[in-house]
Amino acid sequence: MNILSVIEKKKKKQELSTEEINFFVNGYTEGVIADYQISALLMAILLNGMSDRETYDMTMAMLHSGDVVDMSALGGVVCDKHSTGGIGDSTTLALAPILACCGVYVAKMSGRGLGFTGGTIDKLESIPDFDTALSEEEFFRTVKKVGCAVIGQTANLAPADKKLYALRDVTGTVDSIPLICGSIMSKKLASGSDTILLDVKYGSGAFMPTKESALELARKMVDIGTRAGKNIGALITDMEQPLSDHVGNSLEVIGIIEVLCGKRNRLYGEIKEVAVRLLQLSGKYDAHSAEEAFCDVVESGKALHKLAEMVTAQHGDASYILHPEKFPLGKKVEVVSDADGFVDKIRADDIGRAVTCLGGGRMKKEDKIDFSVGAVMNVELGSKVKRGDVLCTVYHNGKGLDEAVNLLKNAIHVGDKSPAPHKIAFAYVDKNGVELY
Ligand code: URA
After folding, report:
1. Which of the listed residues 171, 174, 196 should we mutate to test ligand 1's pocket, taking the one with most ligand atoms within 8 A of CB?
2. Which atom of ligand 1 is nearest the CA belonging to 182?
3. pLDDT tens, residue by residue, 356-399
């Protein structure tokens, strides 16, 4: 077998065999096939697609390129959720303790932010001394004792994806559904959970621009997970505006604490939707008992205390969870409306870019993050505003302030008419099919 014939075959829109797929994934991971040849193959896949069978085979080859975590020693249901990325998406910080309080384990490996999207690991590291690099042994011990733990991805989890993703990033081949499926699902399946909820986002702050493309991606990922023997479902959710009204690292932790202390906003609505679906997928709850359990652990304050327990177990200072006013924040500047009307468009990606300009995100992997900067939104889609009303408050330390304020001003558009209401979720997909909301 040689790589040129594999490229030629995909160029002619022919299906690759399992052997050909294993050959290119393993050859590239081991460094025996050159970047320029895999670049050509990736572009052929982007243009000509892959069948479900090819996508599954590629995912399996990527999954087996590194370690596959075995969680069976925990002796219980292990749940995971994965968001395809967005702005103000801090749901993991609440879901891990909520689900742990409901009697399922959460042993989560999360990523860092890059570009305009934030990452769970950075948000957690804004809590002083929080350790996101526990050894495997301590990670398992913490999950067993507390019920949940969140760490960064270990080095040898799906190494094929690390190499392929880096190449896609510089060859214009990120936005291919089979390639995204292989990338996300190889990592999810390698991290060992048996019950998985995917949160596939669409809109201005997401990878998938439309509901339809998000639904197609979700169906394919659910199909791969089901074939791999997992209990898996996917929610298609709205990213036409930031999910949390707090955007930025410490600010998003504060936003989560507010939800766990009783705030009932869109972020709360999405956390509830994901938790209730995951609890049902776990097989331990039906729709009614899942909702009851969720409300009990959030309203009683058990979930907030479980978050503090997880922070302590991961060597962080849990006093910040119980006293969020301790988080140091930058200086405040308000962005105000220059018209009367309704907020009819919010460019979530530009809100993320504004926070990155302030130093709250990374342009390059090695950039250091300023946890204390960000923006707190005063409005959401449909809010009625008057000229001079505050649209959002910026927290800054001087860096990038003018550019961030400009981006925010343009990102929040005020028009004459109120837009159609935006539901949190558009659809749910599992092995039984699609349920529209
Ligand atoms: N997230 C991933 O991990 N991979 C992709 O290809 C896209 C989003």
Report:
1. 174
2. 6
3. 999 999 877 778 899 999 999 999 999 999 999 999 999 999 99
C-alpha torsion 192→193→199→200, nearest 10 = 40
Q: Which amino acid residue places its CA nearest to atom 2 of ligand 1?
A: 184
Q: Starting from the edge strand earliest in sequence, which strands make up the sheet with 384-385, in order?
A: 384-385, 341-346, 412-415
Cα-flanking dihedrals φ and ψ of residue 351, to 5°? -65, -45
Q: Is 372 in the pocket of ligand 1 (CB under 6 A)?
A: no
Ligand 1 atom index nearest CA of 184: 3
Q: Which residues are catalytic?
A: 82, 161, 168, 183, 187
Helix H or strand E segment including 109? strand 105-110
From edge to edge, which strands make up the β-sheet containing 78-83? Answer: 148-152, 105-110, 78-83, 195-202, 231-238, 425-430, 433-436
Nearest CA owner, ligand 1 atom 6? 180
Residues 211-219: what's their mean pLDDT?
96
User: In this structure, what token pair is assigned to residue 9?
Assistant: 């075959």
Q: From the CB of 180, is ligand 1 less than 6 Å away?
A: yes
pTM of the full structure:
0.94
One-letter amino acid at 334 equals E
Spatial strand order in the sheet of 374-377: 246-247, 374-377, 390-396, 331-336
Q: Which two tokens stand for residue 141?
A: 């011990």
Q: Is the CB of 206 under 6 A from ligand 1?
A: no
184 C-beta closer than 6 A to ligand 1 = yes
* Structure confidence by residue, pLDDT tens digits, 317-332: 999 999 999 999 999 9
